[in-house]
């Protein structure tokens, strides 16, 4: 078994890890909202005002910090007035992007914002730029957030909500280089500047690059980042297992070479963050430091749908490979938390790399859910310096075996999260922590075959367990890293 050296310098605090890095995304797509989050008040499935009780509890347990809605591509077709008022009079529309199904708008603004209040998370609402107007967007923001007297606030009160809600983040369009209007960066930045002018009272997030599109970021930073016009710039990058959008690969049936190829593609996020940060940094000046955050508001693994399910519903299984994708990305976001201020995995229930899958009244927590659970110690903690002597798994592509990040929270506790992507090798990590004074250690491990899943019949096949493979000896830590595993360690 190979031994790798690791160093942690607890006194070298690098940046604050924004809790919103552990954020999520819910779109009117497939069974994410309907069936996944919302079943309606009359459903036999246990619910609170129509919201699934089991899902609310699961979200609370991982301290889900922020939820993005209503899309995605759906956002740029969404007219919010369709989703308010008495249920029976809400307009039915065709969901043109996702399966061409009927959207009955029974989950609208009130339902989403009440749901966020129930879960205790911040709301991130994306307004329609692609097929909407500035007036429509401005009215929506006023309807949701104003405490003053106006036609919009009167309408809200008439619909049963006296007090405004808190909407912390407004997204101005989604993928406007693609499904949100096929715009050029130059054109969108003008449109963005105009929209943002009339939307007040929330942090504004602009549509950012597709993957590592440097030009898009450069134009947006140049034309739209000054004078507080933008607090966040979004970024979307998906891991496609085969790298081929036409045949992405199965979420359950794949071999070791595809597992490794998927993880190598996930590591591309490291390069994206480095390149994008460098472009954004060029526009920092002495007065406006890191005021524009990078918001990775769509990320995760995108595989082929489960055979026999609606191709427009993007329903896939979730395995130890997904757990690894989650751990690698979350560690990367922590390590880049000087600039990454939010991230929203796609999507929260029943779509793409979901943390929860539902079938009727049954619910399973996926391996990805467990990774989020194991990483909660990093929320709002200080990222501290760590380095690990790594090992490349592949000869011809970049794939480090180990991914790690370390933080110290307000109580002085240290949290270490480490993943070993190798399914061939376990490692001994010899870790030195100069001047660290800890007396207790506890750890959890999530491991299994690379394609192991939780199913409705075996919901706990992949679940974290307490781990005694970590030993603390003064300023030294000895960590045994099993094959294909994610470990979280707490030192107090
Ligand atoms: O998450 C699924 C889709 O992926 C979103 O609607 C869109 O923004 C992206 O292309």
Short descriptors:
492 residues, alpha/beta, Immunoglobulin-like, TIM Barrel, 2 domains, 10-stranded mixed sheet, 8-stranded parallel β-barrel, 10 helices, binds alpha-L-arabinofuranose
Number of helices: 10
- Percent of sequence in beta strands: 25-35%
> What count of structural domains?
2
Radius of gyration: 22 Å
Number of strands: 24
Question: Biggest sheet: strands, sense, closure?
Answer: 10 strands, mixed
Helicity range: 10-25%
Strand order of the largest sheet: 21-20-24-18-17-16-1-19-23-22
CATH superfamily of the largest domain: Glycosidases
Bound molecules: alpha-L-arabinofuranose
| CATH class membership of the largest domain | Alpha Beta
CATH architecture classification name of the largest domain: Alpha-Beta Barrel
CATH topology of the largest domain: TIM Barrel
- Broad shape: globular
Which regions are unreliable across 5 or more consecutive residues at pLDDT < 50? Answer: none
Q: Distance N terminus to C terminus?
A: 29 Å
Mean pLDDT over the residues:
97
Characterization of this structure:
This protein is α/β, with parallel strands linked by helices and 492 residues long. It is built from 10 helices and 24 strands. It folds into 2 domains: 117 residues, Sandwich (Immunoglobulin-like); 362 residues, TIM Barrel (Alpha-Beta Barrel), CATH 3.20.20. It is 23% helix and 26% strand. β17 and β18 form a beta hairpin. α5 runs parallel beside α6, α6 packs parallel to α8 and α9 runs parallel beside α10. It starts with a strand and ends with a strand. Alpha-L-arabinofuranose binds next to loops.
């Amino acid at each position: 078994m190979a031994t790798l050296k690791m160093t942690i310098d607890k006194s070298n605090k690098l940046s604050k890890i924004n809790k919103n890095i552990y954020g999520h995304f819910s779109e009117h797509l497939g069974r994410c909202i309907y069936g996944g989050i919302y079943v309606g008040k009359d459903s036999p499935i246990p619910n609170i005002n129509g919201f699934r009780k089991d899902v609310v509890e699961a979200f609370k347990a991982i301290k889900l910090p922020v939820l993005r809605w209503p899309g995605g591509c759906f956002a740029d077709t969404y007219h919010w007035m369709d989703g308010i008022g008495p249920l029976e009079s809400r307009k039915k529309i065709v969901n043109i992007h996702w399966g061409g199904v009927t959207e009955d708008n029974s989950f609208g603004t009130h339902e989403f914002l009440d749901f966020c209040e129930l879960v205790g998370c911040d709301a991130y609402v994306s307004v329609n730029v692609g097929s909407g107007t500035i007036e429509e967007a401005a009215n929506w923001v006023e309807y949701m957030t104003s405490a003053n007297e106006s036609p919009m606030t009167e309408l809200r009160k008439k619909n049963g909500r006296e007090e405004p809600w808190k909407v912390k983040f407004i997204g101005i369009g989604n993928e406007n280089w693609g499904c949100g209007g096929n715009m050029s960066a130059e054109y969108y930045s003008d449109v963005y500047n105009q929209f943002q002018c009339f939307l007040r009272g929330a942090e504004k997030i602009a549509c950012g690059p597709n993957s590592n599109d440097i030009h898009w970021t450069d134009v947006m930073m140049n034309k739209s980042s000054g004078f507080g016009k933008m607090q966040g710039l979004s970024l979307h990058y998906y891991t496609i297992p085969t790298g081929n959008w036409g045949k992405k690969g199965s979420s359950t049936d794949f071999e070791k070479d595809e597992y490794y190829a998927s993880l190598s593609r996930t590591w591309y996020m490291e390069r994206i963050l480095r390149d994008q940060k460098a472009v954004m940094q060029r526009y920092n000046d002495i007065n406006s430091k890191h005021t524009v955050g990078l918001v990775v508001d769509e990320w995760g693994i995108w595989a082929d749908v489960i055979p026999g399910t609606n191709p427009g519903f993007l329903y896939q299984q979730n395995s130890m490979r997904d757990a690894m994708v989650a751990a690698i990305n979350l560690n990367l976001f922590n390590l880049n938390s000087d600039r990454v201020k939010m991230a929203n995995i796609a999507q929260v229930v029943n779509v793409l790399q979901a943390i929860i899958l539902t079938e009727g009244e049954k619910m399973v927590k996926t391996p990805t859910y467990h990774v989020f659970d194991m990483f909660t110690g990093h929320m709002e903690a200080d990222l501290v310096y760590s380095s690990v002597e790594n090992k490349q798994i592949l000869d011809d592509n970049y794939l480090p075996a180990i991914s790690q990040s370390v933080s110290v929270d307000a109580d002085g506790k240290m949290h270490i999260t480490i993943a070993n992507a190798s399914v061939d090798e376990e490692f001994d990590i010899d870790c030195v922590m100069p001047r660290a004074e800890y007396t207790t250690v506890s750890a959890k491990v999530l491991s299994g075959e690379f394609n192991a899943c939780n199913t409705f019949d075996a919901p706990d096949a992949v679940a974290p367990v307490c781990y005694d493979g970590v030993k603390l000896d003064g300023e030294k830590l000895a960590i045994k890293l099993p094959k294909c595993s994610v470990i979280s360690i707490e030192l107090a």
